[in-house]
Design goal:
It is built from two helices and no strands. By secondary structure, it is mainly α. The longest helix has 25 residues, at 40-64.
C-alpha cells in the first residue's frame, strides 16, 4: 500500500470510530444493597445450642446401648 492509501484507510477508520456512537457513556446502576448479616452473638448461640443438642442425642444413644 502506498502512503496515500494508508492515509485514506486511517482517515476512514478514524471517521467511522468517531461517528459510530460507541463513545456514549451509559450511567452506572446503583449498587445492590447487602443482605443483613447475623451478629456474632447469634452465631455463637446457635452453635452452642446445636452442640448441646448433638451431645444430648449422643448421650442418649450411648446410654441405651
Amino acid at each position: 500500500m502506498t502512503d496515500d492509501q494508508e492515509r485514506l484507510v486511517a482517515n476512514a477508520l478514524r471517521a467511522q470510530a468517531t461517528s459510530s456512537g460507541l463513545h456514549v457513556v451509559q450511567p452506572v446502576p446503583p449498587p445492590l444493597p447487602h443482605p443483613p448479616s447475623l451478629p456474632v452473638r447469634w452465631v455463637l448461640l446457635l452453635a452452642l445450642l446445636f452442640g448441646l443438642a448433638a451431645g444430648t442425642v449422643v448421650g442418649i444413644v450411648v446410654t441405651l446401648r
